[in-house]
Amino acid sequence: MTPWTFFLEHRAEILDATATHLTLVLIAMAFAIAIGVPLGMLIVHRPALRNLALGLASIFQTIPSLALFGFLIPIPFIGGIGRRTAIVALVLYALLPILRNTYVGLTGIDPAVLEAAEAMGMTQSQILWRVRLPLARAVILAGIRTATIITIGVATIAAAIGAGGLGTFIFRGVAMVSDAVILAGAIPAALLAIAADLLLGLLERRLKIS
Amino acid sequence: MHYDVPSLECGVSIEMNAKTAENTGPAIQFQDVTYSLNGGVPRTIVNDIRFSVACGQTLVLLGRSGSGKTTLLKLINSLLVPTAGQVIVRGRPTTDWDPIRLRRGIGYVIQDAGLFPHFTVAQNIALVPSLEKWDAARTAARVDELLSLVGLEPAEYCNRRPHQLSGGQRQRVGVARALAADPPILLMDEPFGALDPVTRAELQREFSALARRLGKTIVFVTHDLREALLLASRIILLQNGRIIADATPQEFPRIDHPEVRAFTASLAPLSGALA
């Protein structure tokens, strides 16, 4: 059986898995952005919280993804088998690039611009919303782009805890020792990642300020 | 005559005068001000500074890098707070002012202009008016007026971004932005320091004329004696955080002090080459 014939015979199933996969990624990214960007804004002027938040996010990132999924299963409310646990793990994974880029973007601004803003009588919140955030948006988006690509890849492992998605084919293919089945999961996942990279890269260039 | 006490605070718009009419003293007063950094070893940046700036005066703070002149400037608009003593601005110690209100009444121009790269020229100039919630028509009229004042054609420049300007044009916009809400006091930190010598001379001449016309109280930081002699109604020379000399531009070169001689000597090679 060639990958191509397997693909044609199971195209409905693959398309379905792709949709599930994409849904997992989109939900996880929505949460990760909703947590990561405001948290990044919050830590600009709070060094103690900054070390804690960046430290924790780094630790999540170092846990091997399969292990992270495993660790979450027994935890009440967020754990268990299925989509919810997978999304929690994906959010924890996506957090670091978003948080770090938000922080770096907000703090890596020309000191002359910040000095002028303060000396002109802008409040810290005006400086954050009207100066730091607009100037940091391309860097923040770069973090979101990295996180999205990581999440699309890591989401294949979510199949191991019953969350479905393209990982289903990969795990099945490994069990069956069939390249065709593995590729039926791997190729669409790779294409999703490339598409996300291109799309967000395009947006990033549009947001960049000379 | 620079030391005359004026009857009204100068360079203030009508509505501001109504509130501060009773305030007729010097625009800025340093009363035994010391500023130290509290690192592992506390380091004193400026020490026991006492001087006052009369309304409408252009005071130049002259000194080498690290002499403490920028620190004095930042003490005026409360970007820094004195470790000891107090800075009195328009009759009130800076520590009694709401720093936001204080700064909106003080224009500030720095070496790299610090224009907002994501704003157009017009938006940059309209910064303080927008913070003060002026209406659109009044703001637009003021932006046009200021662009003309600093020698930039309003129609041509108002929609440009800072990266589309030359260094000299950026600095002109920086001056316009500082003047936007008509503040009575203007602080300038080596505003022409990063420009090429020809543009610098051009801006110095124009600014010197502009300053006389506006009647603002100006505190101007520089390490360039030529610039100081051109712009100042009074020069204060700083060395290691202390005042070495306080004189008019006419008196200054005649002061007998090694640091003054070092500064006047910095002019000599040029006059030699031109002779």
User: Total strand count of chain B, please?
Assistant: 10
- The string of secondary-structure elements of chain B, in order, is HEEEHEEHEHHHHHEHEHEEHH
Q: Which word captures the global form of chain B?
A: globular
Rg of chain B, Cα atoms, Å = 19 Å
How much strand content do the residues of chain B show?
15-25%
Sequence stretches where pLDDT stays below 50 over 5 or more residues of chain B: 1-9, 11-22
Percentage of residues in helical conformation of chain B? 25-40%
Radius of gyration of chain A: 20 Å
Considering residues with a beta carbon less than 8 A from a beta carbon on another chain, report the largest interface and each chain's count.
A-B, 19 and 27 residues
Major sheet size, sense and barrel closure of chain B? 6 strands, mixed
Outline the structure in words.
The complex is a heterodimer of chains A (210) and B (275). Chain A has 210 residues and is an all-alpha fold. Chain A is 80% helix and 0% strand. Chain A contains 9 helices and no strands. Chain A has helices at residues 3-9, 11-42, 47-62, 65-72, 83-107, 111-119, 124-154, 167-176, 179-207. Chain A is elongated, with a radius of gyration of 20 Å. The model of chain A has no long low-confidence stretch (mean pLDDT 92). Chain B has 275 residues and is of the alpha/beta class. Chain B is 37% helix and 23% strand. Chain B has 12 helices and 10 strands. A 6-stranded mixed β-sheet of chain B has the order 6-7-8-3-9-10, sandwiched between helices. Chain B has a 4-stranded antiparallel β-sheet with strand order 2-1-4-5, with helices on one face. In chain B, β7 (185-189), α9 and β8 form a beta-alpha-beta unit.
Topology:
The complex is a heterodimer of chains A (210) and B (275).
Chain A: H1 3-9, H2 11-42, H3 47-62, H4 65-72, H5 83-107, H6 111-119, H7 124-154, H8 167-176, H9 179-207
Helix pairs in contact in A: 1-9, 2-5, 2-7, 2-9, 3-5, 4-5, 5-7, 6-7, 7-9, 8-9
Chain B: H1 14-20, E1 28-37, E2 43-53, E3 58-63, H2 69-76, E4 84-89, E5 92-93, H3 99-104, E6 106-110, H4 121-125, H5 127-131, H6 136-149, H7 154-157, H8 167-179, E7 185-189, H9 197-214, E8 217-222, H10 225-231, E9 234-239, E10 242-247, H11 258-265, H12 268-274
Parallel strand pairs in B: 3-8, 3-9, 6-7, 7-8
Antiparallel strand pairs in B: 1-2, 1-4, 4-5, 9-10
